[in-house]
Amino acid sequence: MLSVTLICSDINHPVYASLKVWQSNNADKYDISLLSSVTQLSEKGNILFLVSCSEIIKESHRALFDHVLVLHASDLPKNRGWSPHIWSILDGENQLTLSLLEAEEPVDTGAIWKKVTIDLDGTELYDEINAKLFQAEVELISWACENVDTVEPVAQVETASNYLRKRTPDDSEIDVNQPLSSQFNQLRVSDPDRFPAYFYMNGCKYKIKIERF
Fold this sequence. Notes:
The chain has helices at residues 15-25, 59-62, 84-90, 126-147, 184-188; strands at 3-7, 31-35, 45-50, 65-72, 80-81, 95-102, 112-119, 163-164, 197-201, 204-208. By secondary structure, it is an alpha/beta fold. Helix 1 (15-25) packs parallel to helix 4 (126-147).
């Protein structure tokens, strides 16, 4: 039976629940472990998937597995780095690309196993965006498990690479002096529980929660 390990660094990350469901649905096909830290790695396995993993995966970790794969929500080599799908939506894009690639150093430079596109219509809020993204992620995980023996990875072309910075709470501030229409994308990508949008008024800070009516 294929041995599959998944690492998601934060059990409170919204993708974690989708990984739990995938683990349950595929328990009869694969020997699956869902971990929250590389420090929990102890046994050798066939495939290690890094899904919203914020830790550095050292060569000693990679040596435990036949394949170590990363899910990255950009059309690599474009937009390496942090939160690529968020930056893409803020740039007005309505089609996201999800890349499945080999974990290498520097980060996000490994050979590509497969890419899929995710279509948005520009009205989705953070949870609806997540639902589409996470569905694509678990489908790519399944695809990799099913095609691990036949896949032909493709090396990245370095000519168009760039790195995105890590987002901070300051990126979720709404400017009350600017029209709502110009900041709608900023509102729709804000997770109201983990990274809420907010604004300042009369010396006070206010949290914004946006819902579809």
